[in-house]
Amino acid sequence: MKQMEVTILGQSYLLACPEGGEDLLRQAVSRVDQEMSAIRDAGKVKARERMAVLAALNLAYLLAEQRQTPAATVPVPASPPPSLEANLEEEALLDRLISKLDATLGDDGQLL
């Protein structure tokens, strides 16, 4: 197992990576960074922990959605799919998720 240094939202992380898995890990890091950046840029969430939770939910939802579609009909996108902020319906979903996180986390993760 080797280690790779990666950057997400400008913060460096040292991650374990199986031999030969470097490209896949770089792709995963890029996708997480893209999701978290979109959430940050929407300006609705300030705490890094909340951005990470929302990004994880976005990506898990996309993965679950892809698993429901038969493999033969799943198109392989040339670029990553748009983030939830891409349209108003998805932005409303993001607002509801943020509200649920706020209610659940209370003061945890709030910036001082």
UniProtKB/TrEMBL annotation:
Keywords: Cell cycle, Cell division, Cytoplasm, Septation
Keyword Repeat: no
Compartments, record wording: Cytoplasm
Listed SUPFAM superfamilies: Cell division protein ZapA-like
Annotated Pfam families: ZapA
A Gene Ontology cellular-component term: cell septum
Gene Ontology terms describing biological process: division septum assembly; FtsZ-dependent cytokinesis; septin ring assembly
Self-association state and partner proteins as the record states: Homodimer. Interacts with FtsZ.
Alphabetized PANTHER family for the sequence: CELL DIVISION PROTEIN ZAPA
Primary role: Activator of cell division through the inhibition of FtsZ GTPase activity, therefore promoting FtsZ assembly into bundles of protofilaments necessary for the formation of the division Z ring. It is recruited early at mid-cell but it is not essential for cell division.
Designated name of the protein: Cell division protein ZapA
Organism lineage: Bacteria, Pseudomonadati, Pseudomonadota, Betaproteobacteria, Burkholderiales
